[in-house]
Amino acid sequence: MFDTNVLISAALLKDSTPRRALDLAARSGCLCFSGDTLAELRIALARPKLDRYISQSLRLEFARIMAEQAYFVTPTTVPTVCRDADDNEVLAVAIAARAACVCSGDKDLLSLGQYEAIPILTPARFVERFGSEAQSLS
To answer: What is the pLDDT of residue 131?
Structure first.
C-alpha cells in the first residue's frame, strides 16, 4: 500500500526514491487502493500548484495508470489510531488487502513503525528491503 504522498512524489520526480519504490512494487507486487484512496490521489494530483513540475494531463494519466494496475479493496473497518482520517484509511486498505507493507513519507504513519504486523516503511527502506528480493526473482 502506497500512501498518496509517495505516489505524488513518484509522479512528479521520475528519478526519485519514491519512483524507484513504486516501479519496484509495480514489477514485483501489486498496488492496492480503495475508492477513497484513489479519489484522494486524483484530487491531490489535480492541484494547480503541481503544474510547475509536470502538466496536469500527465498527472491525470499517472492516476489512470495507477487505477488500471491496482487491486481494489473495500475496507470493512477503519482504525482510528492516527489523527488524520486519510492516514487511517491507508491503514484500513493495507489490512483489507493483506499488504506486505505501507510505503509512506508521513511522519504520523512512520512513527507507528507497523500496524497489525504490517511494516510502515519510507520509500528508501522499501527499496532497501524489497529491492534485493525483486532482483533475485528475475
So the answer is: 85
**What DSSP element (H or E) covers 64?**
helix 56-69
Residues 29, 32: Cα–Cα separation, whole Å: 10
Burial of residue 93 (number of CB atoms within 10 Å: 0-12, 13-18, 19+): buried
Domain ranges of the chain: 4-137
pTM, two decimal places = 0.91
Fold of 4-137: Rossmann fold (3.40.50)
Give the number of other CB atoms < 10 A from CB of residue 120: 25
Report the C-alpha gap between 111 and 132 in whole angstroms: 25
Using 50 as the pLDDT threshold, list the residues of the chain that sit under it.
Answer: 134-138
Report pLDDT for 137: 34
pLDDT, position 10? 96
Tell me the residue ranges of DSSP E strands in 22-134: 31-33, 70-72, 102-103, 114-115, 118-121
- CA–CA gap between residue 122 and residue 119 (Å, rounded): 10
Reference 62, options 94, 97, 18; nearest CA is: 18
